[in-house]
Amino acid sequence: MHATSTLLTPATSRQPRSYRWRVVDIVIASVIGVASGLIFVVWNQAYNPLSGLLTPLLPGLQALLGGGWLFAGVLGGLIIRKPGAAIYTELLAAVVSTLVGGTAWGATILVSGLVQGLGAELVFALFIYANYRVYVALLAGAGAGLALAVNDLLLWYPGSAAPFIAVYTVSAIVSGIVVAGLLSWLAMRGLARTGALSRFAAGRSSRTRV
């Protein structure tokens, strides 16, 4: 009897995954969104001088700077690991950046936040919110980058020539992969090592696997 109960313990003790948001999820997602929004304010100011250096080299290359606005959704998705986390954190960051610093792009920044968050969200959803390894983070960053490119090309560069569209899209995706994907994953791993994410699956799983 003792041997039988021991064999059954792992199966019976496994808890089903819950996608319901807890209070702590809302609080931490909000912290991520607000903190990211403040970084967005700084990035808004840095974009024009930096893009002025890239654009003359190759029109469309300025999209390499896009990752500075994409990491909020990916980081939120990696840490919270619940449906809607990427959209919530990215959109909140856009709202905060608009309220605190204002932008030259007006209310369209909110549309950008929603679309970019959705780009990352769709990747996490594709993996059924169950896989948060580094390659999923990179794909989420790429999804956010692609969303940024489509949104910008429609809103700000309608009727652009094919070469510009290609360069802008590839640059946005590369930036999304490196900045929003890889750096967010490294940030999540770093936070997990400090114990700050001990109440999240991100903190527990980061201690055991990559």
From TrEMBL:
Record bears the keyword RNA-binding: no
Pfam families cross-referenced by the UniProt entry: ABC_cobalt (PF09819)
Transmembrane segments: 23-43, 63-80, 87-107, 113-130, 137-159, 165-188
Domain of life: Bacteria
Keywords: Membrane, Transmembrane, Transmembrane helix
Name of this chain's protein: ABC transporter permease
Taxonomy of the source species: Bacteria, Bacillati, Actinomycetota, Actinomycetes, Micrococcales
